[in-house]
Amino acid sequence: MAATGSKTVDNGVQILKALAGNPRGLTTTELARAVGVHRTGIYRLLTTLSGHGLVSQGSDSRYRLGLTIIELAGAVRPDLQSISQAPLRELADETGATAFLSLLDGEEVVSTVVVEPLHADAHVAYRVGTRHPATRGSAGLAILSARPPQEGERDEISLARRQGYSVSQGELQRGAWGLAAPLRPRAGDAEASVGVVALQPLDEDTTASMVIHAADVIGKALP
Hints:
Helix content: 40-55%
CATH topology of the largest domain: Beta-Lactamase
Pfam family, one: IclR_C
Structural class: alpha+beta
GO molecular function, one term: DNA-binding transcription factor activity
Strand order of the largest sheet: 5-4-3-8-7-6
GO biological process, one term: negative regulation of DNA-templated transcription
Largest sheet: 6 strands, antiparallel
Shape: elongated
CATH superfamily of the largest domain: GAF domain
Keywords: DNA-binding, Transcription, Transcription regulation
Protein name: Helix-turn-helix domain-containing protein
Low-confidence stretches: none
Number of strands: 8
Radius of gyration: 19 Å
CATH class of the largest domain: Alpha Beta
């Protein structure tokens, strides 16, 4: 029974992840294919998830994440989310780029707070909850650069450790340029970073100064 229950939970989580990766929604058939479960099983899981507001079905019959997801996301490190909003807003508007705060989760980095610039003609869309390997992209490189060196680590991490920030281009999204600085805790290893992502490279020195300042402001405000 425990194994069955665990498998059911796992399939439910796989549905949520599949929907998170497809904002336009998925049909029951597409979800069954993505999760590897028969449509009958998918339908039962969707009924349960819908009852809790975790998924919703639109008039086009496609399923999407429900609004309850927003409530749950808001409960993740509320201290970081509330403290970082103002500095990230200032950073986004000063640079004209999308500003973000990311957290380390095992070997991956998760975008936790995202603030888009108000007056930019165009900017990179960066979704909250986006995951990627910590060894790729400026957010993860910045966090790793503030942690003890590891054998075989990328040269970009060593460089970021020396200069206090990381830079990447096209590693997560074609053409996108990112710069991030680690959020340095009062104790323990770094677990977060602050950065910006733009459609094209910004002035590195100026942007690095703004990003490092934002990370410092957020870090000092944390308890």
